[in-house]
Model the fold of this input.
Amino acid sequence: MTCKKEFIQLMHHYLDGDLNKEEEQQLRTHLQSCKECQNHFQELKRTITLLESNSHLQPSPNFTNKVINSLPKEKKRISYLRWFKAHPAITAAAIFFILMFTSVFSAWNQDGHLSVSKEQNLIIENDTVIVPEGVVVEGDLVVKNGNLKIEGAVNGDVVIINGEHLMASAGEVTGELEQVNQIFEWFWYSLKDITKDIFAFTSK
Amino acid sequence: METKIKEKIKLVKKGDQSAFEEIVAFHQSKVYQICYRLIGNTHEAEDLAQEAFIRAYVNIHSYDDNRKFSTWLYRIATNLTIDRIRKKKPDYYLDAEVQGTDGLNMYSQLPADQVQPEEEVESLEIQTYIQNEIMALPTKYRSVIALRFVDELSLAEISDILNIPIGTVKTRIHRGREALRKRLRHV
Ligand SMILES: [Zn+2]
Done:
């Protein structure tokens, strides 16, 4: 019984992976000669096996669903977009249906020329609208069928439809910057205003 | 896998709720097992595991991408469960030490030569028995044991999750393991 305490310590350190080669050899040699410690060591290893056997412990099969259903509602726009992508046929039908009653489609097709929501103090070069350095646009800015380069600042949201935001390091937008480049997104952009109420209703 | 999880977390942070689904599916077993080992009841374990995932989702912005996600998640689950245990009834043994190796209990009087084949380890009866013996330990030992043997976490990770020094983790593992050896020697 006298040898036990010291070697039990060694056993635990061994099980934690904390022994150096020398100590490990010391433990090994002792275990070969001491039946009592050998037994103790076997029991410890057996205990670990028992504690690690927990694969039978599983949550209910619908656990993930239950969690997802209890999450607070995400931002609406993302869930709509994903729903549309997951249901392409219904989406296509819905788009067609809505297009029949709106001017969205024609607006997309016919409105091929560059337009900008306000032109004051802005430079238009070919297909690029430039907010020059030192110019501050007050309010939201919408550029359609053209690129936008902001060297000055925009005090509001920026929407670029069918164009790109050409980065200029000095430029500054205080609100959100949104780029709408595909018919799908264009549809979404138009839809937001037209049928906001319908979707707010159906998503409940 | 950790990289894939981190990609998903980025999406969740951007507001994509569906990306969270895979995170839950991947971690649910371990989180549930940790809760179960601590609380000892399947119904409550399920409830706590769910709550842990919901909290993780709500607080996802406070998760630091440079750290291991599972560690962060286990900390939420462990804290929730320990909280629940405290609320259920004052745990008089929370700060008690495990008794020394002497003292016979009813199990140590069982015949010692009944060695069980490995596959029987999984039998429900034995598992219930094991869990009962774990429940007999004070919470602070149970939490260390749960983390160590559910996901083979390193001592450093456990120290991080429970916010206790690594030396304390070691002592608790040694004592917990020794106490359970005594209690499970005839299983
Ligand atoms: Zn010995």
Notes: Chain A has three domains: 4-52, 73-110, 115-203. Chain A has nine helices and eleven strands. Chain A has a mean pLDDT of 78.
